[in-house]
Amino acid sequence: AGTGKLCPKGWHVPTKDEWIALGTTLGGDVNAGGLLKEAGLEHWKSPNTDATNESGFTALPGGVRMTNGAFNFIGENTYWWSSTESGTHAYGSYVTYDSAALNSGTLNPKEGGLSVRCIKDSK
Prior knowledge:
It is a single chain. The protein contains 2 helices and 7 strands; from the N terminus they run βααββββββ. With 123 residues, the chain is of the alpha+beta class. The strands form 3 sheets. The protein has a 3-stranded antiparallel sheet with strand order 4-5-6, with helices on one face. A two-stranded antiparallel ribbon has the order 1-7. A two-stranded antiparallel ribbon has the order 2-3. A hairpin with a 6-residue loop joins β5 and β6. α1 (16-25) packs across α2. The longest helix is centred in the N-terminal third of the chain and has 10 residues, at 16-25. The protein starts with 10 loop residues before the first strand and ends with a strand.
């Protein structure tokens, strides 16, 4: 995800530290996921715990593409790449339908697929 080719000019794939900063800015990882998730059950599986979208981020449950090509967790979870690598994996963040947390760590192998959220470069 850190190739520089995924986002338009003036934007980039966030680093691990930028994802951590987002959680901190939203009051901590324990509740940050709820502030990021689209509210309601139009796209999310019930109960979509504490989803308010107060941040305006509107996280949607895109799931994950496994290394064998199968798609899993659509409607339940969403996972985002960061540009920070960790060997054959990359660091990422995710939210789930049954928690208000913004989770993070070393996720799917790079051969799999996660969503990407671009952020505007600072001036």
